Structures are given as C-alpha cells and as structure tokens.
Known about the structure:
heterodimer, A: mainly alpha, 3-stranded antiparallel beta sheet, 11 helices, 3 strands, globular, B: Four Helix Bundle (Hemerythrin (Met), subunit A)
Amino acid sequence: MVTVITNLEKRKTNFLLKLNYTLLIFLIYFVTNNIAFSKERGQILAHAAGCFGCHTANKDLPYSGGYKINTKYGTFISPNITFDKKNGIGKWNLEEFTRALKHGISPKGVPYYPVFPYNWYKELKNNDINDIYNYLRSIPIQSIKQSNHKLKFPYNFRALLWMRSKIEYIFFSNNQFNTNNEIEKQGSYIVKSIGHCGACHSPRTFLSIVKNKNDLSGRPKSHKKINDEAPNISNNKTKGIGSWDENDIVFFLQTGFKPDGDYVEGHMTGIIEDGTSYLSENELKAVSKYLLSQHNK
Amino acid sequence: MKYITIISLTLSILINNVFGQEEDIIKYRKNIMKAVGNHISIIAANLKGKVDINSDILPHSNALYLSLAAIDIDKTFPEGTSNTSGLKTKSLPIIWSDKKAFRESMKVSTEKAKALVIAAEGGNRQDIGKALGALGKTCGNCHNKFREKKN
C-alpha cells in the first residue's frame, strides 16, 4: 500500500514538474515575443517621432545627442537619450520618461525648452510611450556628455519657462479632433502627436507659441539668417498640398520625391529619411487622408 | 557726342551678349534638371499605381541616368552664373568655391541613377522603389548644399 502511494506521489510530482516546465517555456516564449514586437514598434516610433533625428548628430552614435538646432533664441544642443546613467537617461523610470514627454518636465522638476515638442507628445498613447522607452533601453549605451544649450539673454534663464508655459496654457488651443472615420483619426494622431508636423508647419505667435495645432498653413522664417521656414501643408489647392492626391503624399513621405519629380529640401530631407519613411504604407495612407481632409484647412 | 553714342551702343551690345549667354546656359541647365525631374515623375507615377505602363520604367530610368551622366560640369556650370550674379538662378557660389565636392555629389547621383537602371532591368517594383529612394537622397544632399532654398 505504501509503495502504491509513493509511486502515485512520484508520478504526481513528475507531472507537476513537467507542467511547470511547459508553463515556463510558454512564459519565456510569450515574454520574448512581446518584447521583440515592442522593440520593433518602439524603433519605428522613435524614428517617426523624431527622437532619432533630433538626438543624433553622428549616425554611428545613435541617440547620443549633440544635434544642433539654430533658432532666433540661440542654439539648442540635443541631449544624450541613451540609457547611460551619468550622461543619458539611464536613471529614468517609465513614469519619469512619460512626464518628460507629455509635460516637458525633467525628473528633477526642471522645465524643458519648447524646442522639445512635448505639446504634441502630450497626446501620445501610453503604450506607444512604453514601446519607445523599452526600445531606447534596449539600444547600446553611449557615454557621451553633451554641452549645454547656447542661448541668448534672457532665454538662458530656464525659470522663465514656467511663465511661458502659463501664457501658452491660455493661448494654446488643444482642439479635439472629431470624426467617425477611423483612418482619419489614425492620421490625425500621427500628424498631431507622433509626427508633431505642426511644430514646424503651424504659424507661431509671440514667444513662439503655436496658437492652433490644427492650423498647418506654414510658417515664415523666424529670422532672416535662420532657414526655419516651413511650407503650407493644408489641403488648400493653391497654397497648400490640396492638389496632391493620397498616393503623392505617401510616396513623398517614403522617398522625398514631390509629384513633379523634384526632391524635398531643407530639414524635411532628414525628417523623411530618418522619420516618416519608417512608417508603414497604411499609416502613411492615414496621414494622407487626414492631410487632405476638410479638417486640415 | 557721336563717340559717346557709339561707345554706349558697343558696350550695351557686349553686355547683352555676355549676359545673354549666361542666361542661356542657366535656362539650359534648368531644362536638364526639369528633364531629370520629369523622368523621375514618370517612374514614380508607375510605382504609385497612378498609371500602369510599367514598360516605361526602364527607358525612363535609362534616360534619367544618361541625362545625369552626360552633364559636363565645367560647361553647364560656367563661372559667373551663380545666384550672386544678378541672374535668375538658385545655384549657390559654393558650386564654384568647392567644385570638387560638387563633382563628387554629381558623381554619386549618377551612380545611384545607374543602380536604378539595374533595378529597372530586374523588374522588381520594391527594388526599383528602393533604388529611386536612394537616388532621391543624393539629390537631396546636392540640393541642400548647392541650391538656394525655394521660398
């Protein structure tokens, strides 16, 4: 009798062990696949959102910063956003990363200059932020310390940014986008959040505040010596891109060629090469649909 | 008075002649670039599916390659024809001050156009698209450095 019980217990233990192994294998498979998917999506989003473009001066050292943006306020130098603990964002958790992206506040509570387009990123979905965060965590660390921005007086006083943000809060119209068309909604999300197209293509008022994110009617030079003008990309047939069709826009955002065979110029060259060309054809079709819709006047 | 009139007339004929030649060469090179753009838009129209005349891709890739390969930089971009000469052109003076870099850029574009021809011969639309994109990047590099930005 005792022998029978012992055998039964042994078989039970073996069965449970086998079950545990099987569950472990399933768990590893599930986690690995999900991380892989998340990384791939994270890479696409990090490119489409301009993280790569703005935080990479040397393509051999991606995301290590050092990219210079000349503005009428001075020169901004992008920081290292690899997970180096000393010079990058290695100490940041997901919550701090999200706060930086959505609210423009560093983990130490310091406000970021609006050259960092947090006003557009505030609409980012949490799972997209999660994918970008995990992707950045997975790439090689670069231990490069970038120098501080070189800004003119009084813009070099960061504390003034709190005042600016209050003014911006009053003037910034965070117009909600209402449509039942799911493709247009997706396009609007890419244009107004991930791609932050309005950061260049929307007119700016004093203190460089963008009054209306939905207005993509272009922006003149902010200073005669700075080539930061951006064309009208509204659906206006003469002033904007209303004469283009969906295929023209998709092809342009994939290759940089305009419908007349001319090639894109200026900053948009890099934005296509390192950004929009990473998006899928369906995502670019959604962008085209939104840009040509009545919502983009 | 008679001499002054003769001298003025001679000078104006000479100036007109010189500027006329410069204007002609500027128009000429603009036409080359327009032709290149037209070949690209014909290939692109097929890739976008706007038209379905795929048999046009190879001849227009060839024409595009030959148009670029045939450019004689010294004759097509003679001295004194930059956008600082008062003539209607977007060619920046750096074309002449860094002619080596300009030649190299044109050479790279021509090589990419040759790669486009090879892709077109293969007939795979994805490869053609990639080759056209690679050519585009070289166009962009050249325009950003050597062409005045459009308003």
